[in-house]
Write a structure and sequence with these properties.
With about 625 residues, this protein is of the alpha+beta class. It is built from 14 helices and 28 strands.
Length: about 625
């Protein structure tokens, strides 16, 4: 079975929902609760202030709170549940006999303790006077088997049901903040169900019907008080959708697939996020405008553009039938009319100061949308970067690019007076100049793009938001994998790249932007030279060098790098990430040229900036 990385429990329908590393969802129903959540010992989660925070439990990937209010650990498989049960028995009851342990393990208020003791002694065959810590591995296995039997793990086997399904999720947002308590209507055939968003603005997951029928998403129109269809969920692949509301007027539902009813054919201003491989010529062709018009609308002094930039487009709004803004490879023009591409291989002179673009509201995928306003209200000609959620690569990158331009190379001691990313994401820290803030900046960009970053219920979850290694481990001591992110074997545009030392500890994090030479990856990140900038980092854990022996003979030698990069993407972006591997790859770029655009001077010869460890 593929690896399951995260899980939730829907007590209203008694279904455990597991998320697989490949993005699929597994639903387990029927049987008993221990079986549904792979918890043979019915182990519960310790709570602190009403929030599950197990101290020493390992291997769990979620929590199941039942209708009775009790919260249990969810494990990825039976084996993981059995291992934690054995560890629990040794850790908490090692110096007790079975008769002494059961009243603590299975208290009287929830169990028939005397019967539990009799059944456990009888089925396990363990002598009544033997302490659990003195039992052999084989005897401990017998105790685990007996507990699983008593707790009902194997009961009602004929009712068990496992179903792999496509599940879509919908979030409610006003463009900058989640909207809790928002109601939508889900129509399946002739049945309608009203659901509300939770405090994080998330609605219950929508399971795609087995008969491939469409689930229509409706909202109540505030004027007519009638249900209006804003989108539809269908297909074999689950997607994340965002329901946008502006002044309580619903704009629509959109996600990995555009399903809102934007008006086409009108010459309204649109915002477009530059993708790797794009050129002004290509964009002008796709949106039936001209390079000159795009240049004028955006006050560009040259034709060179960069991935992640936001451009104002005043084209017809109609694209060619085969337009695929997120995956179309870069077209090559003839030698006499080669369009400039979105790269920085050359080192062009930078404008005196690039136009500042306001950070887009979440979500911020790539593509176009009609803008609510052609220009900002500040009268400075700034394009409003309002991006519609349509197919695109790394929706958090426009946020990071816009923020880098807005801050224009300011160092942290100046920057912290304007914004503190620690405070913005709530990692419990303050003051950029006193603590590393690369992870806080990365999480802030993801959060602004509509991606969850907080693992509610996990121990040290707040502090983890400010740590680089938190993108792959929620709790470093217990080696608990962060279920919100999936590791990639190779870097892609926008990947969360964690600079990792040889001991396995992540000490810095940034977003993959391009290549600098054969072995270095350019990261756009915070806390790089105490500011937001582009910096090169070594990609490989090992590298081949040429050494000259005493005899003068030259040999190649493989050495381990002091540090290397690991790559991650949000779980909900994983399917798109796999497609991104086949899209235009990472370009070779000039770091100094990139930094000039965001107001960062080139590094002096021999100077090397190192981020503070987080």
């Amino acid at each position: 079975m593929p690896r399951l990385i995260s899980a939730t429990y829907h007590s209203n329908i008694e279904v455990a929902e597991f998320i697989c590393e490949d993005g699929r969802h597994l639903l387990r129903s029927g049987g008993t609760l221990p079986w549904r959540i792979n918890n043979p010992g019915d182990l519960t989660a310790r709570k602190v202030d009403g929030v599950p925070e197990p101290r020493k439990a390992k291997g769990y990937i979620g929590f199941a709170t039942t209708r009775s209010g009790r919260t249990f650990l969810i494990f990825p498989d039976e084996g993981a549940g059995r291992e934690e049960l054995k560890a629990n028995l040794k850790r908490l009851h090692g110096d007790r006999t079975i008769s002494e342990a059961v009243p603590v393990y299975a208290p009287k208020k929830e169990n028939d303790t005397e019967k539990y003791i009799r059944d456990l002694l009888k089925t396990s065959g363990i002598p009544a006077g033997r302490k659990i810590g003195e039992c052999s591995d084989a005897e401990l296995e017998k105790i685990v088997n007996s507990i699983a039997e008593i707790e009902g793990y194997h009961a009602n086997a004929d009712t068990r049901k496992e179903t792999w399904v496509a599940v879509s999720r919908i979030n409610a947002t006003d463009g900058s903040q989640p909207l809790p308590g928002t109601e939508i209507i889900l129509q399946r055939g002739d049945r309608e169900e009203v659901v509300k968003s939770d405090p994080a603005g998330q609605f219950p997951p929508v399971i795609h019907p087995a008969d491939k029928s469409t689930v229509h998403v409706k909202v109540m129109d505030p004027k007519s008080r009638k249900a209006v269809t804003v989108g539809a969920i269908q297909g074999d692949v689950g997607k994340d959708f965002n329901l946008l509301a502006k002044f309580k007027r619903w704009k629509g539902v959109a996600g990995s697939e555009k399903i809102n009813s934007s008006t086409h054919g009108q010459r309204k201003p649109m915002s477009y996020v530059v993708q790797p491989g794009d050129s002004l010529w290509k964009i002008a062709q796709l949106y039936r405008t001209s390079v000159e018009a795009i240049r004028d609308d955006n006050e560009l002094e040259r034709d060179r553009i960069y991935p992640g930039e936001v451009l104002l487009i005043t084209g017809s709004g109609k694209t060619k039938p085969d337009h695929k803004p997120s995956t179309a490879p870069s077209t090559t023009a003839t030698a006499t009319a080669k369009p400039p591409t979105a790269s920085a291989t050359a080192n062009p002179a930078a404008p005196s100061r690039p136009r500042v673009v306001s950070p887009p509201p979440p979500p911020v995928p790539s593509g176009i949308r009609s803008s609510d306003s052609e220009r900002s209200k500040e009268g400075e000609g700034k394009v409003l970067a309002l991006i519609n959620p349509v197919p695109g690569r790394a929706p958090w990158m426009p946020v990071a690019i816009a923020e880098a331009k807005t801050r224009y190379g300011k160092r942290e001691e100046v920057l912290e007076a304007e914004i503190d990313y620690h405070v913005e994401i709530g990692d419990g820290s303050k003051f950029l100049s006193q603590r590393a803030w690369c992870a806080a900046f990365a999480n802030w960009c993801l959060l602004k793009a509509g991606y969850p970053v907080d693992n509610v219920g996990f121990r040290e979850r707040r502090a983890t938001l400010g740590r680089a290694h938190g993108f792959y481990e929620i709790d470093e001591g217990r080696k608990i994998r962060n279920p919100l992110f999936v590791e990639m074997d190779k870097p892609i545009y926008g990947a969360i790249a964690v600079a990792t030392r040889r001991n396995g500890h992540g000490y810095h994090v940034g977003f993959a932007y391009g290549k600098a030479g054969g072995k270095n990856l350019i990261l756009l990140g915070g806390n790089q030279d105490d500011r937001i900038k582009f910096s090169p980092f070594n990609m490989d854990a090992e590298r081949v060098v040429e050494v000259v022996e005493k005899s003068g003979k030259r040999n190649k030698k493989t050495i381990k790098s002091k540090s290397y990069l690991k790559y991650f993407v949000p779980v909900s972006y994983y399917e798109q990430a796999k497609r991104d591997l086949a899209s235009p790859g990472l370009e070779s770029l000039d770091v100094d040229a990139l930094n000039k655009i965001i107001g960062v001077p080139p590094e002096k010869k021999g100077e090397k900036s190192e981020p503070r460890t987080s």
